Amino acid sequence: MNITNTYKQYFFGVFDNFCKREQIVKKPIFSIILGTVFLCLDIANLQAQDFHFSQFYAVPTLINPANTGNISGNYRVGAISKSHFLEKSNQYQTIAAFADVAILEGEFGRDSWLGLGGNFYYDNAGVGLIKTLNGGGSVAFHRILIPKTLHFSAGMNFNYVRKQIDLDALYFNSQYGENGLEADLPSNEAFYRDALKYLDVGVGGSLTYVLEKILELNAGLGFLHVNRPRETVYFASNNTGRNKKAIRPVAHLTAEIDLGHFGVHPAFLYSRDKGSRELIMGSHFSYKLSYDAQDQYATNILVGAWYRWDDALIASLGLSVQNYRLLLSYDANTRQLQNGSPNRRGFEVSLLHTGAWRAPQSRMHCPRF
Fold first, then answer.
1. What pTM, to 2 d.p., does this model score?
2. Nearest-angstrom CA–CA distance, 89 and 13
3. CATH for 55-172+194-355?
4. 193 by DSSP, 3-state: which?
5. Pairing of the two strands 150-165 and 324-333
6. Of 6, 191, 314, 354, which alpha carbon lies 20 to 30 A from 58's?
7. Could you read off the pLDDT of 201-244 as tens digits, one per residue?
8. Domains of the chain: which residue ranges?
């Protein structure tokens, strides 16, 4: 995982403590090197600020617009909040919400329908260092290939993005000398602005397979930032400069396996964002506490174990009542790079509701995520 610019001040503190412990006299070259490195990290991570949820399955339309309207009912709404801690303080806060509907059943053919959705997410990284506001909509087309068994989905989303950077919280090599940080010194950086905005476009496709009521399987591939918007604080326009966002591929797989009173819900996500890669895999295990005569609105308790590759173990606990699902998860950092490695912890809570104002006419049973 890439080191974000929030770690900048932490690592300079580690550097100072190391020098004192080892009785090393700091030379300007050390500060210059560190300042230059973190300057590059600050500018690079301005581009890399993207959503990263452990409960990726709780925000299906964000990871792939093809999931818009891919539901058993007529509508779905969800929200998630993520708090990421560095040492003892809350350094990150991300909030996201989405809603989608399935409409126009049979209007484009007997075995097809359209999905429309909207989404919003807000990210506060590094105690206000970078604030991101993202909102937009998505549309998807769904076509049944094999009745009651297999259907294909393709979608696209459009988002308006605004980012605000607190330049006063950044320090550069020109502000470090023999005695360490001298914040009153000028940064000598030619920043033109501290905020930017642009249009962001994503596309994706997926396949959904259903085996009666025993198995539901959804596999998809999404591509975010396909228009490759530029992000820069050195120029007046996003049309200038080389800082283009890289296209971010997101591959995902979710499954629902019904074993009577028990259920298994494995999921997998792989994503690549410039030089960083994210791989999350694991499963929820559910037990039906009660269910109605139609077996539609079961009350389930869920327990899950997940692993983010080379980064964290994730434990989750949840409850689904009728067509509502509440999930809590906790990330525990497993990386032990060095003695000064920060202790990172994360906590997420999500709520999902799926409903219907009328029975679907032609659609097959779709994934509940």
1. 0.78
2. 15
3. 2.40.160.40
4. coil
5. unpaired
6. 6
7. 999 999 999 998 789 999 999 999 999 998 776 655 555 556 78
8. 55-172+194-355
